[in-house]
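Bench notes, afternoon.
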Amino acid sequence: MSIGFWQIAIVVVLVVLLFGRGKISSLMGDVAKGIKSFKKGMKDPIQDQSDSTPPQDQSSEEQDSDKK
């Protein structure tokens, strides 16, 4: 048995009814952004690492100012 056109159509209709058209389109947009971000990261990973700087620990500075 193979999957026919009507079986696929019924599944698509059920998914649209359950999740709504807006939810599906926003989900697909999020997936597309993720794919673009992944491709960008794979394209030039060395540049991304050199651009990122480690965050400074501001909690110790805040504690010192509280003691004064």
